[in-house]
Every structure is written in structure tokens, then in C-alpha cells.
Amino acid sequence: MTSKIRQVGLVTAGCQPWNNNMVSGCGPTFAYCATLAVYIYQYDSAYEEYKLTSINASHSKTILSLSWNMGNGDVFATGGADHLICVWDVKKRKCITKLENTQCYPRCICWIPDKKQSTSLAFSGQQGPIHIWDTISNSVTSLDATNGFDCHISLFKWHHTDPKKFVVGHSDGSLSLFLSGKRNKHCLRPSEESNTGDVDPVLAVLWDPLSSDYLLVSRKVSGMQLVDTNSLSVITEFMMPSKMISTKSLSWVDSAPGMFITGDQEAGVLRLWSVSHSSPLESIKLKATGFHCLHALDTMHSQPSQDLQKRTSNLEVSRNRLGSTASNQAYSVPPAHVVCTFADGGVGLYNLQHKKWNFLREQAHIETIFDCKFKPDNPKILATGSFDGTAKLWSVDDLTTIQTTNGNEGVIYSVSWAPADLNCLACGTRKRGVFIWDLNQGKVIRRFKEHGQHPVYCVAWNQRDSHRLASCSSDGYCVVRRMDGEELKRFQHPDEAVGCDWSIVDKDLLATGCQDGIVRVWNMLAKNNSHYRALKGHTSRVFHVRWHPLIRNLLASGSDDTTIRVWEVESETCYALLEGHTSSVRGLCWNHEIAYLLTSGSWDSTLRLWDVRDKKCIETVDDHGADVYGLTTHPNNPFTIATSSRDSTVRIWSLGGVTESLFLRVLAGEPVDSIVTTPDDNMKPGSALKLSGNMSRHITSLLREKKNSDFVKLRWFSELFCSSRGLENLWDLVCTCRGQRESTLSQSYRKGILHTKHLTKYKAAEAQECEREVAQHKPGLRHKERSLMRSADLHLKLGNIRRHCEILVELGDWERAISLAPGVSISFWASLTEKYATVLESERDKDATAFHIASGKVREAVRFITSQGDLQDALIVAQSAQEGNTPHVTATEEIHNGDVTSEHESYDDLVSECCDHLSSRYFHKSSPYSAASVHLANDDFHSAIDCLIRSNELALALCLSKNLKGSSNRSVIPARLLARKLESLKMPDIAIKLLKTFDPPVPKSDWSAIHDVCARCDVTDPDTKTRLHQAAGLPSPSECKDRAVSHQSNGDLSDAMRYHVLSGESQTGLELAIQLFTARFKEDANWTVDAVMLDLAASFAVRTSVLKQQKNKTLRTKLLAIAAYFGALLAVRRQYDSIVKPLFVHAKSLVQLSQSFDPHFPLSPSNVHEELQAWLDKSDNDVATRLRHRAGEETHPSMTGITVVDSSDFPSHSNTAMSTISGKKISGAPFILDDGRSVLSINEAIMWAKVNQFSPTSSGERICPF
Fold first, then answer.
1. Is 929 among the domain residues?
2. Can you tell me where the transmembrane regions are (predicted)?
């Protein structure tokens, strides 16, 4: 069973800024702590990048501490304000043990080293003592020696090798040392010279990894020191450039002994230090926002390739790095990846040696996100409001921050957009009233204080009248005002007014929810301020109300009584009571196309989809790790919803699973009018699934105006039904491939994946725009540098080396510019060299001589040397020039960059190779639209369609195959798989129409997908069965039976079996199939999958109802054994590596059972086991040869290679399921098997179903995850 709701986007939480030591790592893994969860990243060696692999959400309150077990790199622990310590196993992706009800808040935790494996964890609160938890025996003891401190514990740290040595840092700046039984409390206090009277707590301590006695300490005021714990002396006092700079984050660089890094708390400056220098070796400005935590990772997993090492082994390379604080460095920057987290929630991984980000998420929310709303005129922009005091705008396409408020608004409970394109956002706050944020000006332009200091829980901007803005507050009032501040209405409630919403159908109706559990409806046209209707039924606070977007009289309300009520407003009656949530209901959202669909979010951490007609919950999703508050959708993109939560994440969801049958009907050629109805008809109980919203009616109207509208129809409906991220970009590329003008492409095209014929033109324009921005707007120094570097980088990649060098000169990177200048011409190189020599001469730098001589300017060199008083050296230079020994530069022909007319080497193969690599990366990151777009950008239609098929975007693959020249042959596979989907939806007639449209005809004697549909159709009515055969162009069931009898009497078992199966006499067909295969396998030892493929297909088309009959248990087991074994062979040839072993194991068990029924069953358990072992061992023996021969070669490229469904790698906050067949943790929504308990990952399920249509439960049921 596939999910109706599928997650397609995730904005992760930022690193929380209020507790220290929130980042750690070991080897190729690192983790950081958000408020309620730990985000774990692991290194993917195949693509040399870090990926978010899991989320640990075991805590119910704020995480206080994090510690990695260096004795076991797969294990780390967290302590939380819920008095809970959790130990997490990275490989198993689960919490392996817990300590509940700790005696204190575990503000600091640390693993204690052990010679074998660390199993003991120390923890303490602020007042001590330190407790030791033995994670094996689950016993807790206290260290008596850590009682009685004079002040609070800031932190403590065990030595990395000595379990009897640890240090405690205190809030007064002192250290307490415990060294092999000796203790020295409150020593090494800050020096009196540094004592300014301010609180000077210890912020960080690190033991020197190469010493048993040295300790690195950082304090808030007095700064950093390297101390000797044995002699209690300070070895080095490290000096920041200013006393105003402090750091609370330190990390040793493992690849460079004696080096460590720090991050400034006031600004995002990363500093590299050596224990032998009191000042930083290098300072790098990474962000304007201050650091919170950092951690340098071990870099052994990302060393250069062997080929690169061989080519550089005999070279002594010295690189001048842009951004260095000194021009002549006597040190080498170590290879290190630094995990950086910032005060604004930003998280990134910085390559210290290469001076670049591996990845950077500039900003994120760091606390509960109470609300989210799509922009009315642009569904690609999402606004959020959070407890952290910020409102942020997000790009839905790439989930990056577009804009943010300053963050000084306290708590933001609610956000609401101004209608249309007014570009303003209203926000309701806890203590600062309502404010209007103007996006164009980037500032707050209005502030309303009618509610005083009372919290404003909800704001609602009337989408049909921009002059009406409503707000509800704990003062009991709902206030409606104009933008100029004029108060229009003040509606009084007997208790706190919590939620409000304007009707979209009737602009004068406003609904409110109240603490007293009553929903009130107000009419703005009424002369008094009395409510128009009162809807009573909830037994607790009504938190949210939502008007139906299509039906005037319907209103939904969510309450703390855990229920949702749908009201008929005029009659003041409850239309539907929806029960299922186990805690307070928060978010509510109607669907804008299917009138009876309602989505809700709750404090029980779940998202639920409801059919309000029959009051049933269609699906429940629990991927959020905490209360679900915000919930929103957009009329133009009705099957994409966004949610926000107390887990500080935003998630994007697709409801494509609800509407897939409608899209398939469009693809099969059904009239568009057949899937569209009115909202009132849509709400009738038992009515068929149809669309009834404004968007579908608009599309239908436009299609009537177009004559040749097939392409437009498929594009519009795919954008309506499918997930929106990246889809518009893909269709823009399809348009380009079809030869449409650039003017017809979307405005966002140039920001996405570009067609190769547009690539250089648009990137050149982007480079010019960066330079124009610098020239016109005169931005700050750092922004100017970034813009120029971006422009220089683009010019270099475009081959414009001259302009690249000129920008480098403008940035002061002369030596890099000079080193690249010969790529333009020698004369250009000489010109730059001479200019640089002049600059050096003005600085009285002796290096000016070298550049004067190198550029052939002997007279200038002699003059400069003479001015330095080195007359003898001046003479040497002059005489050498006289003898012709110094260089003489002459103007040479300039090297052109891409504008030559002569023949040049073709790089088509290189472009294709780059596209393949880039597409592969997108594909394995579960971004199929982008993966396909890359192939389309290079006019590789077939690869683009194959990519969509492999990622299960089958309907979209059909759209492309129908609209791209020469691609019709790519429609066969997706059409056949979708036909199986339609069968599972009880729509065999549509399946046949789809196959007739996209699957080319086959000879009548062959077995085809259409035969499959008719044979598998489990209908008992003979007339219906006959009509289905007629639609398929096949003989009637009675004719099929007659033919079967005839073929059987003639000894033709193959055709007899096929016609029996097709006629509905499945049991007879099944018996003949087993006879047929038994004979085939015994007669021909060299049989192959391809040789028996058609007979296999026919035998596997036996009706499910026949297979599941108890009397057919033996036949069923034999058929399932054959299906599993052939599935394993197909999995081998199609490289579905993750399911090969499970299929072989499944086949072996079924073969054993079959032989227990029938000793003459042709398959042998030992042979199956041998073939599995040969595959696992990658053997080259006779068994492996037999295996490869039987499996054969795959002829359909789209069926080769693993399946990766869109966003199937998204980790969940909830306890993830374990795959029944592989035993691995499942990322994304699981596919639930027919027994209701067993689960597969969606990728596993799709690959399994492609090679074996029967369920792993051996029940005879079929699985259809397509």
C-alpha cells in the first residue's frame, strides 16, 4: 500500500544557540543539535559529499548536551531537559539505550575512555556532583570528589586516554583538576590583569591530543590559554585582535598536530591557531553572524585520488591562498572540514584548505515554527513565523532562505499575506502587537497596538479586500482595521480569542475561535458588533477555524478537545465530526480542488488527511517529531502542502497519491470534462473522485480555446497533479527541446538547469550583472568581494580569462592573475607583471625587482635597485641585459577564448559525460526532475525519460515520450507499469485505453500487457468480462475457452495455458503452467529467462482470487517459487543489488516448501543457494556462468539500475520502520504489505514489483507500488 501523502521537501532546523557543545563528530560522520532533535550527516564516498542520513528525535524537551564516543565511532549520547540521556547508534539509526529520570538536568555529558570500548558516560548538572552511568549494567554512581564546589559547573571534559584524569570548568573561570586520584579544586583562575569585574565563566576546554598534561581553555572575558595541568602554569596566552572578541567554540585539527581553530562569537570569523604562536595564523570571514559551535572533522576519508597523488608526488607545490592574512606564510593550512554553526541557525561544512563551503545553509529557524503560508501570487514562496522572533521567506524550489526579519520581535505566532502581489506580510506577536513587513523595502512599515501587551495569536488578511486585516488576541477581542490604522470593527469574546479566518467566497464573513469552545461568525456589514452565527459543540478551546474555499456555507474548526468539526454555518449544525487525533488540533487546511478533502495537524505530531463526507481519516503521517502547528496550500498548486512544527522544521508534501487515477485518465485520452465537476456534486457521499476547483475549471476553459492542445494539456495537468519542485524547469527544457522561443519560458528558467545552448549566454549575463551590481549599488566590502569573486569565477568557467584576471587584480590577488595571464597572451602577462611590479615598488617591496626583470623592464629594475642602495646588484642586472641574458617580451598573437573560426577539437563527448555525472548525482540525491532536466539540457531525450522511469515518475515519463521527437518507444515500460496501477485501482478499462495509446501493437499470437489486464481482472460478471475483452480487441472469454481446449487437445500446452488463463479458467491454466515449466526445466538445462518470458507472463496473470483459494495452496506455492526465482534472476541482470539476496532467500524457502509437496519439483534449494553464493562472492565459476547465462542481458535501459524515488532518502523524526526483506531502517514513507505488518522501503517495493509481482508475504497477493 503506497502513501497518499508523500514528503517531497525538508527544511531542517538550525543548530540551537543557547547550549554549548552542540556539534560533534567522528571519522566520516558529524551531528548537530537542534532544540528537540539531532541531525546526523555521513560522508558519501561515491559523490564525495556529506548527506543528512538520520534524525534522532528521542527527547521531548530541549537537548542540553552532546558527546561522541571516541572509543566507538558509531555511538554518541545526548542529554535533555526532560531528564533523559539517550545513546544513539549511527549505523543502526536508532536509540540503543536510555537513562530516564536523571537526578539533574544533564547539562554536560562526556564518555569516559576505556582500553577496549567506552561504555561509561559521565553527566552532571550545574551544581554537581558528576554521576557515572554504566550503559551496560544501567547502574549510576556519583563521584563524591565532585561535591562541594564553590560555584557552578560550566562543563567538564575527560582526558581522551586516561580514565582517571578529567577537568571541570566553573562559572567563575576557575578549573578543578582531577589527576589520577589527586584533586585540585578551583585552580588556574583568570589572572588579575584580565579581571574586569565581569562574569568570566569557562566556555570551552580541550585536552591536547598529543599530551597527557596540556589543556586548552577558553573563558568569556580573559580569553584562551594553553595550560600545563601538572605544573599548574600557563604555557601560552592567546591574543585576539581585539578585547571585544570572544569565542566559546574550539576544535583541534587532527591532521595538523598543534593546530586548532576557533570561531568568533560576535561575527562569523574562523581563526586558525598554533600552540606555538600567541596570535592567529589566519583569520577568515565566513559570515556576518557570530559562530555558535564548530568542530574539525577527520579528513582521512577525503584524501586526493591515487592518480592525483601520483601526478603530484614529485612536485613541491606552494599555493598562495586568497583570503590569507599574510602574504608570506611560514605554515601550511591543514586539510580539514569544519562543521560550522551560527547564531542565526545557519549550518555549513567548510573546507579549510580549499577555502570554500562544501555546503552552507545560510539560515534556519531555531525554535518552534508556529505558522506558514504560501504567497498568494506565487506558490514558490513560503513565509514562516517562529518562536525565535523571526519571519522568514523560503524558496520552495530549493528550500533556501530568500529574506528574513531582524529577529527582535519576541515570538511570532501567526503570519498572513496581503492579497495578490502587494508584497507585504502581516505578523502577530506575543507582546509587540501586529506588524506589517514590506518585502520590497525589507523593513517593518506599520505596527498596530490595539491589543496592548496581550499576545496576538492569529492574523488574517482579507484576500478579497486588502483594506481589512483581522487579529485575535488573549484580550478577548478580534480587531479589524485598515492599513492606515483606522479601526473598522472590534468583536468582543467572553474569553481569549485565538483563531480567525476570512471567507474566500464571501468577503464580509469572518469566523473566530475562542477559549470557550464556541466558533463565532461575524458579518462586517452588520451595524452592530454582535456575532452572526454561534457554532457550539466543542468542549474545549477552538484554536483554528478555516472557511471552505469553494463552498460558502462550510467552515472547519480544530479544538483542544482533539476533534475537528465541519459546520454548516447557516443552520448552525455540525456537518461532520472528525475524531482520531490524540491531542490538541492545530493546523487546518481545505483542498482547493477536491472539495471533501481536509488536512489537519496536531500536538500528537501527526498530519492527517480526511474525507469529510464519510468522516474517515484517509491517511496519517508522523514524520514530524513534535506538535504540527502550521498547515498551508495554494489554489494554483492544490496538491502540494507545507507544514511547520515545534521540531523547528518545514516540510513540503505531495498529495499526488490521491489524484494519480485522474492523471492517468487524462493520459489515457479520457475527456477532460469527465474528471471535472462542481463542488456541491463533489461533496455528495459516494461521488466519484473528480476535480471541482478554480484551477481545473480554468485549465478546462483554456483547453477549449486551443485546437492542438495535447502538449499543453499534459503539461498543465502534470503541474497540477505532481509535486512542483523542479517540474517547471523540466517543462521549460522540454519546450526548448521542441524548438519553442525563449520568450515562452518561465521567468524562473534562468535560475534553474539551463539548456546547453543557453548555458554560456545566461552565465555571461550573470557575471555582468554581478559587476553591474558592484558598480551601481556600492555594497559593503564583503558583499562587493563576494559579487566580484562570483563574477570572476563565472568568467573563468566561460573561458574569458582576460576578464577573470582583471577582476582578480581588482581584488588584490595579483599573483593568481599573473599565473593565469599567459592563457590570454604573453603581452597581457607582461602588462600585468609590470603593473604588479609598480605596486610592489610603491610599497618598497624588494620583490618588485623580480617582476620588473621577468617582464623585460630592465631599466625600471635597475632604477629600483639603485634607489634601494644596492648598486652592485644594479650593475649585475644591467650587464646581464647588455649580454642578452634577461627576458625580452614581444607582443604575440592573443589566445582567443571560444570565438575562433578555425576548426577546433570537439567536446561533445565531454559535455555528455559531464551531464551523465551531474544527472547521476541528482538521481541518487532523489531529485528525479533535476536529474531528467540535465539530460534534456543536452537534448538526450531517451536518458531523461529513462531517468524518470527509474525514479517511478511514470506518468511524467509518458508525457515526455509523447511530446519529444523520436521518444515514443520509451513509453512501453511506464505504460505497462501504470496499467498495473490502474488494475489495483479497479480501473481495468482505463488501463486498456492507456496501453492502446502508449504500448505498440504486438502479433496476435504473443502475450502482451493487454492480455495481462484482461486475465488478471477479478470480475465475476460475465458481461463485464466480455466488454473488457472487446475493448482490448481480444476474443471473448468463451472463445478463449474453446481455443484453450483445442490447443490442449493438440498437445500445445503453451497456447492452451495462455487461453485458459485469459478465459477465466485460471485454475486449469495454473495447472498447465506448472506442467509446462516442469517439462521445460527438465528437458533443457540451458534455458534462459528470455526463452520462457512470454509463458512466464501468462502464468503469472492467474487471478488473485484463484491463487488464494486454500485448495490451490500447492499450486500457489509452486508458482510463487518460480516467480521468486525468476525475479532473482531479473534482479541480477537489472542490477537491483539491494533485493537480489532477499529474492534468492525468498525463492529458496518457497522451493523447499514446493519440494515438500512434490519431490519432482524442477527447482532445487541447493542450486538456488549456490547461485546466491556465487553472486555474493562475485565468483567466476561454473555456477556464476550458469547464473549469468540464465539471467541474460537487459534490453530496456530504463529497467537497469536501482530505483530512487523522489525524496525517498528523507529521514523522519519518528521511529522509522525496518524493512522486512533487508532488515535496514527505512527512510521516507514505508510501503505496507498485504498482511498489514510487513513493510519495505518504497525503492525496494518498486524494484521487487518490477521483477516479481507477488508479495513477499507468500499470500498470493500482488504488490503495486507504482
1. no
2. none
